Amino acid sequence: MDAFLASRVLTKDDDWADAIGRAVSMQAAADDVVRAVVQQARQNGATWQVIGDALGVSRQAAFQRYGKPIDPRTGEPMNTTPLPGAAELAASVIGDLASGQWARVTEQFDPAMRDGLSEDALAAAWAQIVGLSGALEGRGESEVTRAGDVTITNTPLSFEAGDYTARIAFRDDRAIAGLHILEGQAP
Questions:
Q1: How would residue 65 be classed by pLDDT, with cut points 50, 70 and 90?
Q2: How far is CA 174 from the centre of its chain?
Q3: Alpha carbons 112 and 47: distance in angstroms, whole number
Q4: pLDDT tens across 70-122, in order?
Q5: Using CA atoms, how far apart are residues 34 and 107, in angstroms rounded to an integer?
Q6: Ranges 15-19, 77-81, 124-128, 143-147: which has the least confidence
Q7: Is the pTM of this model over 0.70?
Q8: How far is CA 49 from CA 66, 95, 145, 149, 170, in A?
Q9: Among residues 120, 98, 96, which one has the least CA distance to residue 108?
């Protein structure tokens, strides 16, 4: 049903809720069909490049959405489900950085991060970015992916005179395993 017809036929909230529910069900069924076809294509030797081209995305994006990576340490399929609430965790860390709450950030570090980046060094790194580009003016929506044992968030940051990406890696216990502020917006 096209949008014009839907706007003429459906008038009650319940009708719209039903129509939206049916559309979501159709979308989920279509996603299941695409997933099955991608799996068949891989079983028959199609490369991720071919699949990505067919989907209109990069081979990496196709793999991240439909691939089943195998852990080279165990030979078992890897967990590809991102940590729930990772985008909110990243927003909180970025808020703490912007407000100079260095201790609140470093308290969340895993042991390796604690050994490698002190509270003073974190403050100095943030000051360097502010010195180059001015104050943080805003942040965009985080992209969240799972890579091996960590969930990685990439959050666009807008400073007065420059754009950056906050890349924060979280362990499943919500500890920070990596924190990078990258110049420019992540691809």
A1: confident
A2: 15
A3: 37
A4: 889 999 888 889 999 999 999 999 999 999 999 999 999 999 999 999 999 99
A5: 43
A6: 15-19
A7: yes
A8: 13, 38, 20, 25, 29
A9: 96
Closest CA to 106 of 118, 98, 116: 118
Tell me the residue type at 45: G
pLDDT value of residue 186: 59
Q: Got the DSSP string for the chain?
A: --HHHHHHH--SHHHHHHHHHHHHHHHHHHHHHHHHHHHHHHHTT--HHHHHHHHTS-HHHHHHHH---B-TTTSSBPP-PPPTTHHHHHHHHHHHHHTT-HHHHHTTB-HHHHHH--HHHHHHHHHHHHHHH-SEEEE-PPEEEEETTEEEEEEEEEETTEEEEEEEEE-TTS-EEEEEEEES---
How far apart CA 35 and CA 37 sit, in angstroms, is 6
pLDDT of residue 7: 53
Euclidean distance between CA atoms 130 and 104, whole angstroms: 19
Q: Parallel, antiparallel, or unpaired: how do β-strands 136-139 and 176-183 relate?
A: unpaired
